Amino acid sequence: MSQFVHLHLHTDYSLLDGACDVEKLCQRVKELGMPAVAMTDHGNIFGAVHFVNAAHKYDVKPIIGCELYICKKDDHNIERTPPDGDTYNHLLVLAQNEEGYRNLVKITSEASLHGFYYKPRVSKEFFSRTFPRPDRPFGMPERRSRGAPDRREV
Is the pTM above the cut of 0.85? Predict the structure, then answer.
């Protein structure tokens, strides 16, 4: 039997969008025999600690993520660029390790502190400047082809 893992799931920390209690979620995931579950709330990671603690309590692997709001303007900072009429797209990101979690903290903090216009947003420019390696922006290990040298850059 193949194992299913939810990688896009909103909890009650996803304001006005989710009603899933973290504790009950982890209990149900365990009952269904799922090895892991991701929490990907809209624009924030407020529930990360609660989620990780609940997942460990039920012996489920927690995956912390976020559904970011990426604005279409070049600058998300509302003090420099009036956000009037700006639209956004969603981008789902998952942290694979501690470095990825720290990157999520950085980008969600920036979005809430400087890019909040109805929703916590960041620009594509900020995203690419902050995470210049689009092939592994959230702490994913570097892929190596056969015979490639072992590079230890972060």
Answer: no
